[in-house]
Amino acid sequence: MSLAELRREYTLGGLRRADLDTNPIAQFQKWFTQAEATLAEKKLDVNAVTLATADKNGFPSARIVLLKSLSEQGFTFYTNYDSRKGRELTENPRAALNFFWPELERQIAIAGSVQKTSRENSKEYFQSRPRANQLGAWTSHQSSAVPDRAALETEWQKLEKKYPAEIPLPPNWGGFILRPERIEFWQGRPSRLHDRFSYTRQPDNSWKIERLAP
């Protein structure tokens, strides 16, 4: 089968204006909870999200990260600040997130400004991670070239001996929080007439809700 022939109909449900919470964060939490319930048995990363960034010249890049916290203030994920995404978010502090749950035929697209979380917040999350993951954060100079896999494993073993007990927070590792300015909820529908609703933040921090053409 050719790529042009790959398609399917979306038939699981619809989305009406009456279904939506007036607060997009509450609406996100509702859909996220439903995704957790649907994907739990499959042990899939329901919090996996595409993060799109751009450098100071506008050149884009995208990758999958894991959402680790959600509040009225925004969406939080963690990374090495010296990685490509870390550098780009520092140069150009705007980003987009896109969740896609094909099992539910749903997407959520989010865009807004970003800033680093506090050092205290980053430390609290870092210390909640498994020890092996903490060592991995120290081992990897993320996005830099490495000679081979053995070099990474050798460095990991050195660090394991260096930190036999508590592992400190790396100086170049921490969180970013994305403060949403726009959130769109997408529900697949037959004939490509999908349901799309966007929330746009207003100057008074209220949200304008609009139905968008698919």
Major sheet description: 9 strands, antiparallel
Relative strand content: 25-35%
Secondary-structure-based class equals: alpha+beta
How many beta strands in the DSSP annotation? 9
Q: How helix-rich are the residues, as a percent range? A: 25-40%
- Nearest-angstrom radius of gyration? 20 Å
Number of helices: 5
Mean pLDDT level = 96
What is the H/E order?
Answer: HEEEEHEEHHHEEE
How does this model look, in words?
The protein has helices spanning 24-39, 84-91, 119-128, 131-139, 149-162, and strands at 48-54, 60-66, 69-71, 74-80, 94-101, 106-116, 173-187, 195-201, 207-212. The protein is α+β, with helices and mostly antiparallel strands and 214 residues long. Strands 1, 2, 3, 4, 5, 6, 7, 8 and 9 form a nine-stranded antiparallel sheet that branches. Helix 4 (131-139) packs across helix 5 (149-162). 22% of the residues are buried.
Key descriptive features of the protein:
alpha+beta; nine-stranded antiparallel beta sheet; 9 strands; globular
Short summary of the structure?
With 214 residues, the protein is α+β, with helices and mostly antiparallel strands.
Secondary-structure blueprint of this entry?
Layout: H1 24-39, E1 48-54, E2 60-66, E3 69-71, E4 74-80, H2 84-91, E5 94-101, E6 106-116, H3 119-128, H4 131-139, H5 149-162, E7 173-187, E8 195-201, E9 207-212
Antiparallel strand pairs: 1-2, 1-5, 3-4, 4-7, 5-6, 6-7, 7-8, 8-9
